[in-house]
Design brief:
Aminopeptidase; 6-stranded mixed beta sheet; 13 helices; 5-stranded mixed beta sheet; 33% helix
Length: 414
């Protein structure tokens, strides 16, 4: 078979991007022919990919992964959730001891080129309990070029903010970078500023606010990518050109194609977001000190183990849906017994706006009653409450509360 110059160039690029050193002609043939072979996890309905972002050459800490997000796809319901981990989470690393998780890639890659992705997968699996067979890592330059190549991204800015100390490329700062509420078409550099900003005002100065912005960018990027013609050589060649020096993955080209086919079935409104945050009472912020330095870290709260975190993330789709709707749930306890709440601990953890109040009743209710005051505004929360608990559904709204859902605990909760 004769191989033209364009095809030869494409083969060269794929061999520099993909970590598996398989014969490039075999790899290329699989991409063109396609494959019906399932991705790891498809047989159980869940496919996980670890997404990593780093500075790259010319940046301070070029191999530190300041973006750590697990993309989990439910292939049965055609839904996806982006789960972000704090870069300051401390975890035990082989031959490095307890370090921030964003250094896992750097330690492993420095020791042996090509090992960074696998080492970071191991660290993230330890924290989350997820099975993660795949990773994709990109640096700032590759991200900017790729976004420009696909024509930019349309991003809705939720809150106006200004970052007066956004870094330039010479270890200084750019003039203040500002974003205003509303839809904005962003080129690669602007999208990077939106995703990377760490010192914005108006509540946008935390790593957790930044992770939410990063997930917005990733969702928009993925939606744009899956619309590309991945059987067209010119399209593939141009995109690989953006990624050649700036992208690493253990997904093979035919697996990327399969992933894109799955992604095409997932509508934007079926993509959810979840972050491990100190507010969830599982992980806590702290300071580690020695004789020479002080470091801000995040770690499991006292008495919390990794299995506790795994248990919460086992329900990550439900948690992400409830968080997205952000409904207010009020629990009134008619029994006068605090332990009546024990069976609702999971609900209290998963629903951000859960308020527990006492309810002075001369005679406790016999059964626990659920009042739906939402008028259909929060379908996922309604389904969760109705399908996961043995509540008696009220026929009318509860007029003595402004909450979207009201639960009055009865004797059956005891």
């Amino acid at each position: 078979m004769a191989v033209g110059w364009g095809t030869t160039e494409l083969l060269s690029k794929t061999n520099r991007i993909f970590s598996n050193k398989e014969n490039p002609l075999v790899r290329f043939g699989r991409l063109l022919i396609g494959s019906d072979r399932e991705l790891i996890g498809e047989n159980r309905g869940r496919v996980n990919v670890l997404l990593l972002g780093m500075g790259g050459e010319g940046h301070d800490g070029p191999l530190l992964t300041d973006t750590i997000i697990v993309l989990e796809i439910d292939t049965k319901t055609e839904e996806a959730v982006l789960v972000s981990l704090p870069r300051d989470f401390v975890v035990g690393l082989p031959q490095a001891g307890f370090r921030k998780i964003n250094s896992a890639y750097a330690f492993a890659e420095t020791a042996e080129a090509g090992k960074g992705g696998g080492a970071t997968i191991d660290a993230v699996e330890k924290i989350t309990g997820f099975e993660i067979p795949y990773f994709a890592a990109i640096d700032f330059e590759g991200f900017v070029e790729a976004v420009d190549h696909i024509g930019g991204l349309d991003i809705y800015v939720e809150r106006s903010f200004t970052d007066a100390t956004y870094p330039d490329k010479t270890y200084g700062y750019l003039p203040p970078v500002s974003f205003k509420v509303g839809l904005e078409h962003m080129d690669g550099e602007r999208a990077l500023q939106f995703a990377r900003s760490r010192h914005g005002n108006n509540g946008e100065g935390s790593d957790f606010a930044r992770s939410e912005r990063q997930k917005k960018i990733i969702s928009a990027f993925v939606q744009k990518i899956v619309k590309l013609n991945l059987t067209d050589l010119k399209t593939i060649n141009n995109l690989l050109g953006d990624f050649t020096e700036n992208f690493q993955t253990n997904l093979e080209p035919h697996e990327l194609k399969r992933l894109a086919e799955i992604g095409k079935k997932i509508k934007p409104e079926k993509t959810y977001s979840f972050s491990l945050e100190p507010d969830d009472q599982l992980i806590c912020q702290g300071i580690i000190e020695d004789y020479t330095s002080r470091a801000y870290v995040i770690q499991p709260c006292e008495g919390v183990t990794y299995p506790d975190i795994h248990e919460q993330l086992n329900n990550v789709f439900a948690a992400a849906k409830l968080k997205k709707e952000d409904a207010a749930v009020e629990i009134q306890n008619s029994t006068g017994k605090a332990y009546a709440l024990e069976n609702l601990n999971e609900l209290i953890k998963l629903v951000p706006k859960t308020k527990v109040t006492s309810f002075n009743s001369r005679v406790p209710y016999e059964r626990t009653i659920l009042y739906d005051n939402s008028n259909g505004k929060f379908p996922n929360t309604a389904d969760y409450l109705k399908n996961n608990f043995n509540f008696t559904l009220a026929d009318v709204p509860y007029t003595n509360s402004t909450a979207d859902f009201v639960i009055i605990l009865g004797r059956d909760a005891l």
